[in-house]
Amino acid sequence: MSSNWKTVQAKSLPLRVAFGYAPTPADKPVMATAYKRGGAIIIATVGVAGAPGVVEYRPTDKVRYAPVPEAVGTRGLRYCRTCPETHLLRVGADAYATLFCDVRTAQRNAAYKAAKDEGRAWPTKSERAEAHRERVAEKIDTIIATAAPSRERMIAATLTNVATSTAYADEEKRARRFAALAAQYGLSVEQAEALVAKHAA
Predict the structure, then answer these.
(1) CA atoms within 13 A on the CB side of 50
(2) Which end of the chain is more exposed for a tag (fewer CB within 10 A), N or C?
(3) What is the overall mean pLDDT for the chain?
C-alpha cells in the first residue's frame, strides 16, 4: 500500500477536515470529511460522477483514507477562494454536500460576538446582501478600469496582423486595408503605425 494511504479504525479518522477517501484500492479517491454522529462515524463525500453521499461506519470498522488528498489524485477537490491562504473546504454531511470554510465561519462568529459585546447591531440579511452587491460593483469597476490596456493590445495585434499578412498581392492593397482598419478604430495611419510599434517593442 502506498505510504500516502492509511488504514485506521473509523474512530481514529481526523474529524471535520478534508481528506481523500476510497473504500478499496480499486476505487478512485474522492474528497471527503468525517463526523461523529451518536455512536457512529460518518464520511461525507462530494459528488463526482454521481450524487454526493454519506457512508456510516462503526467506530471499530477499518477505513482507508489519505491525509493529503492531493498526493493520491483525489477527485472533486474544492478550495476556498476567499481566504488569503489556499486551503481545502470541509464537506458537509447534508444532502447537497455543502462546502464550508471553517476559517470564515470562525471570523464571522468572532465579529458577531464583538458586535454583541460592544452593543452594536449585527447587519441584517438585506444589509449584508447590499454590502455584497457593493463589493461586486467595486470589483466590476476595477476590471473595467484596467481593461483599456488589453483593448489597446487587441487593436495593435489586429493592425499588426494586417501589416505583416502575406494575403495581399501588393503593398498598395495592404496599405489601403491597414488605413481602412485604422479608421475603423478612429486612428490615423500614423497613429496606427505608432501603436503597432509601441506593442512590438
Answers:
(1) 7
(2) C
(3) 87
The residues, any chain, with a CB within 8 Å of residue 88's CB and separated by 6 or more, are 17, 18, 31, 69, 77, 78, 79, 80
Q: Is it the case that residue 49 has pLDDT exceeding 60?
A: no
Q: Is 78 exposed, middle or buried (0-12, 13-18, 19+ CB in 10 A)?
A: middle
Per residue in 125-178, pLDDT tens? 888 888 888 888 888 877 766 655 677 888 888 888 888 876 766 788 888 888
CB atoms under 10 Å from CB of 170, counted, come to 7
> Considering the entire predicted model, what is its pTM?
0.57
Helix (H) or strand (E) holding 26: none
Q: What is the Cα Rg of the chain in Å?
A: 28
- Rounded to whole angstroms, how far apart are CA atoms 149 and 143? 11
For residue 60, CA distances in Å to 4, 14, 37, 187 come to 22, 14, 14, 76
pLDDT, position 129: 86
Helix (H, G, I), strand (E, B) or coil at 92: coil
**How far, in Å, CA of 130 to CA of 137, rounded?**
11
Q: What is the pLDDT of residue 147?
A: 58
